[in-house]
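Why does residue order matter? Because the sequence determines the fold. Keep that principle in mind as you read this record.
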Amino acid sequence: MKKICFVVDSIFSIGGVQRVTAVIAKELAKEYDVTIITFDNPEEKNLSTYGLNDANINYIFFSYPKIGLVYNKICKAYSGFYQKYSLQSKWASNLYAHSSFPYPLRKALIYKLKNGNYDTIIGVHAPLAGRLATIKKYLPNTKCIGWIHNSFEALFSKNFIYIGAARKRHYVFQFMKLDATIVLCNHDAKSYHDYDPKFKPTVIYNPLTLVPAEISAGTSKRFLAVGRFSRKHKGFDLLIKAFSIFAKENKDWHLDIVGEGPEEKLYRELIKEHNLEERVTIHPFTNNVQSFYSNAQVYVLSSRWEGFGLVLVEAMAHGLPIISSDLPTSKEIMGDFGMYFENGNIEDLAQKLEEATHIDWQAKSKEALSIAQRFDIENIIRQWKELIE
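Structure:
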């Protein structure tokens, strides 16, 4: 039996990456020996999260050792130099790969991975994929795969808080060392290939990660949005402001937002500022999010960026029409089905909220259910197995 290892920052915390990683790992565990190496605190282990107690998966909790102050300063000095001057050569990238991932840290992770004798190792998220690329030569006879969950734009645009444009060349150099790099949509694959024609990522969509509950009846007059309240990502601030415009003329509809995270205080302040306490409700994360989909009439994705809008598939699996920012991944998932607004445009979003109250709901619902079938787990896991084998 082949041994598969996922290396992930966290598997027991709340988030879309954690959920889809758990779903893929559980499916692969039916035919492979699967291990998840996580940087979670062991005390946070909760196998009920994402149904992990339903699968035979091994868990290893890993943390890096501390490194000396002087050595750390030397590494940071070069890393800062590399980022400031955006060096473009391969040797400079390789040197940065080592300075940003100092030897004691590399040694500890190499030991942990070699000790497992894995046939395939999957680095989840761009930073861990990059680190896996850095140590790949020390893992002979092992297939090393990077699984990138952020969109190309979110990783490398100056407008976002992730890797940044200064390190684009570096990450592409590193990803090309891997046996395969998975991205979540064809738009991202094309963006990488356009940047460097020698780089050809593999596209595997995320699957539907939950069992749908009752299909929505489409009569509740409730908009729904679901996601982690992380900084300037899901655009719930934009949605609340747009709903405040919509609510001035429309007194019947309600907005439910489900999730948790650091921006919750901001959202509650916006709700209070616009006197929407009776019209907008924030609900905590729940393992039964299906009940919210079943009770909604229209789903809204207001994200500024998405690697893959998993909630879109979940919403369509419950028969919901969808309003979405005009992200390339949303258009790739939904095509002409989606009702799109200009990303970041509050007035345009408010207009789409109004338009959604007048659609042929039954026709839209039927189309939603048809699209959702494309993301069935059996279709997606077949592609994973082909890549592993």
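The radius of gyration is 22 Å.
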